[in-house]
Write a structure and sequence with these properties.
This protein is of the alpha+beta class. It contains 17 helices and 27 strands. The strands form 4 sheets. The chain has a 10-stranded antiparallel barrel with strand order 17-18-19-20-21-22-23-25-26-27. It has a 7-stranded parallel sheet with strand order 3-2-1-4-5-6-15, with helices on both faces. The longest helix has 15 residues. The chain is elongated. It starts with 5 loop residues before the first strand and ends with a strand.
Amino acid sequence: MSGERLSLLIIGGYGTFGGRLAQLLGEEPRLRLLIAGRSLEKADDFVADLRSPKGGAGRLGGNDLGARLQAVAFDRDGDLAEQLTRLKPDLVVDASGPFQSFTRDAYKVVQACIDLDIDYADLADSTGFVAGIAELDAQTRAKGVFALSGLSSLPALSFAALEAMAPHFSRIESVSAGIAPSAHVKIGLNVVKAIASYAGRPVAVLREGRPATGSGLIDDIRVTIAPPDVAPLASRTFLLVDAPDLALLPSRLAGLQSTFTGVGTEPQALQRLLSAAARLVRLRLLPSLLPFARLLQAASHRFAIGDHRGGMFVRAGGIDGEGRKLTCGWHLIAEGDDGPFIPVIGVEALVRRLLEGKRPESGARPAAGELSLKDFEAAFRRFSITSGIRLEREEEPQPLYRRILGSAWERLPPALAAIHAGGARTASGRARIERGRGLIARLVALAIGFPPAGDDVPVTVRFAAEGDREIWTRTFGNRNFRSWQAEGKGRDQHLLAEVFGPFRVLLALVPEENRLRLVVRGWRFFGLPLPLFLAPGGETYEEERDGRFHFHVEIGGRLTGLVVRYAGWLVVEE
């Protein structure tokens, strides 16, 4: 280390990802952070902003920066040996990109670091760049330094998630992964250029165990990202992108049959236009989408529509230890502006390990498998980031709510688990009922059969299983009304679908301490999707109180006002 501090040079240090890395490490007193880029003025402005009370370090725990920050000019096309010798970094992190554009002398920064005995890491997402760095392994080992490429979401985090799921399998046959950025995150130009570079171009994948060619931003799959403990993201289509995982997976998993890596952006209508443009490239009606990179970036910023949430998934399919088919998915959701920190968390973990005296093995290699999922999860706790694993085994019937909740089922209070245990059962108790007074509210309540208002009303709920759905028959006093519930399919996957007459309401099951909240995520009328802002809403939850199951259901909307609100308790009859 340089003196008493580890000296870290971040190329692209004031950019989209380099800047966030500086925010994560800014409070670390054992670091000397060199914020580097072509523009010294921009680097100076970034450092001044980081030091201010409103700077990024403040949001992560105080604005007293412990790291020694220095803005420096750095030109990757200049005299690298002179610049590195003058700056004297212990570790160089390349966060600039787009690595897809590094053709001539692609590894010149890496080579310069090796020649000067400097460790190196990057956030590369280019398949060729990440896979090809292994050619420098022998000389890197001889120098006793390391060069890790792709220490980002793909492949470092995706491989960490895959390794966490691997013990559930005796054989993994398919792997897919995807990133779903929030529509409200300002995507950097280099990221857009990287995506545009392979639009409509051939992308190497595996199909039926053989090398095959897919079409960038054209081939697709549909996935619902749904960690067990939070409301899922809206189901979306993921378009094929060229990521390092596609090149690295076949050599890591014997018997692998298929691979896919994708991106799913919102709004989906804009993504469909992007896919249509990629088809023009494939048909050779356009040479490339690269000239339109700035236009694509501007469109993504202008049409920032939808929830301010992003996510990621890694899904594996294969055979478990008992010979049954198994699908296992790791899901992640990041709230608000926390998503763009995920690609740099791997580098942050590496730096903190170096500060603890834990060095990676010398050599040059892709960063796939370099960190464990626990390394990432420890950093997730600083943010509003939730992740978890879902298992789906063939021919293993489970209660409806258990199938939807996944591993979160194990944390349900006993009274809630008893109500949702599946099979035929009856529960009884008491309830208080309120009814809306508006004309439309009364008509809706009459059509569905909601009970009249009353205090301390006896209530009985009879549960019956019918195929893959549950029928709930509720009796309030002498008034019955019935609905049925099932697991959502297709674009409604991981949601609870409850049907009242012609209405289908789609609900996310969200555990919160001793409660299970039911959050409306969509609705249909005779199968036709209706606007979410008009959906029936209200505070609806179940909870355990004094060892007893309690419910609170509120149904209303913008057009109707309150339709009905009922709350009470139930006990399962023996």
